Amino acid sequence: MARVDLAFATVTFKRKIAYKTTWLFSILFGGWSLLAGLAVWSQIIGDGELGGYDWSAMKAYLVIGFLTATLAWAGSDWEMANRILDGHVAIDLTKPVDFQRARAAEYIGGMTASVPAAILGTALAALAFRPAPPVSALAALLTGISVLFIFPLAFCISYLATMTCFITQRFLGVQWAKDSLVAFFSGMMVPIALMPVWLQGVAWALPFVHFTTTPASIYLGRVDTAGALGLIAAQAAWAAGLWFIARLIWARLVKKVTIHGG
């Protein structure tokens, strides 16, 4: 099965890199968003600090947010959704391939194609804006591990969103809602530490916070080593939990295809 997964991922990876303008666009679009964020927060923070972030730390937070956002939205939501909306899922059911694993391989293959753009953009931002360095070499390593968990988390959340197509027969509104939730509750838009206490509690109870706030918190030393390991464990737990929840939901929804498709 691993060879099949790799084949699916490779095909999607090659399809993505065939359109090199996508790489350039992702860097430019994310770069403009990063510049806008830097301009706004530089005026808000100035020479002081806000929510425990001074200007150097906020620059690091924004650069990490650029990296995680580039990865989080690099998957192929619409490719998964269209398989359901166009009825191709009925054909997939006749193949000796696990539907969820196949889509995961394709999705992560697409995300992998964005890695060069994400690394290049992050490196350029770090050179240009001189953000705060990681608090330690161990924090840098744990930050990297935390970023890796964005791949399974992004897939599981997107996969769950696309399965609503069985019921809604539409996906655009669902995608907007999913992207808005990720952007807000991850801390990409506004750091979680600046939100009201009750809203912080809501954010930390959801998986979205692990896209940006978790790696940034580890990088900047806002949690100690034990706390960092705990956050990474929470990421792993969310990824595993959402994966099995998706399988349970799929087992129920696929009956609609079986009943109507024969």
UniProtKB/TrEMBL annotation:
Coiled-coil segments: none
Alphabetical list of Pfam families matching this protein: ABC2_membrane_6
InterPro entries from the UniProt entry: ABC-2_transporter-like
Superkingdom, natural source: Bacteria
TM regions (residue ranges): 23-44, 56-74, 107-129, 135-160, 181-206, 226-246
Keyword tags: Membrane, Transmembrane, Transmembrane helix
PANTHER family given in the database record: SLR1174 PROTEIN (PTHR36832:SF1), SLR1174 PROTEIN-RELATED (PTHR36832)
Name assigned to this protein: Antibiotic ABC transporter permease
Species for this entry: Glycomyces paridis
Upper lineage: Bacteria, Bacillati, Actinomycetota, Actinomycetes, Glycomycetales
